[in-house]
């Protein structure tokens, strides 16, 4: 199964999600594709999220962050929350708990 826009770094036969399928088909490659139901696709996307995070940690490339966001938006939509609503949730949490703007790192605190 393919769930990515570019070939995975690993050589696993079974991969993640299918936006890469069209690109592969255009280049003449045969693709074995299966349409997943939402619950199975969600499971695959959650694994894909970890993979994309690992790719970012390895490369530090901002484009990997865009891939992470794409996966997050689709997970959110599968859970019934569109990207605008997700951003409102993020903003509300930032107002309540603060942001990472000040580069503060908690070393320890009183118990």
Q: Which tags fit this structure?
A:
111 residues; single chain; elongated; 4 helices
Description:
The protein is mainly α and 111 residues long. The protein is 55% helix and 0% strand. It is built from four helices and no strands. Helix 2 (38-59) packs antiparallel against helix 3 (62-78). The chain is elongated and about 60 Å long. The chain starts with 19 loop residues before the first helix and ends in a 14-residue tail after the last helix. The model is unreliable at 4-14 (pLDDT under 50).
Strand-helix topology:
Blueprint: H1 20-26, H2 38-59, H3 62-78, H4 83-97
End-to-end distance: 48 Å
Q: Uncertain runs with pLDDT below 50, 5 residues or more?
A: 4-14
Largest sheet features: none
Task: Tell me roughly what share of residues is in helical segments.
Answer: 40-55%
Query: Residue-averaged pLDDT, rounded?
Result: 84
* Strand composition percent: under 5%
Structural class: mainly alpha
Overall outline: elongated
Number of helices: 4
Listing every helix as H and every strand as E from the N terminus to the C terminus, the arrangement reads: HHHH
Number of strands: 0
Task: Kindly provide the radius of gyration, computed on alpha-carbon positions and rounded to a whole number of angstroms.
Answer: 17 Å
Summarize the structure.
By secondary structure, the protein is an all-alpha fold. Helices cover 55% and strands 0% of the residues.
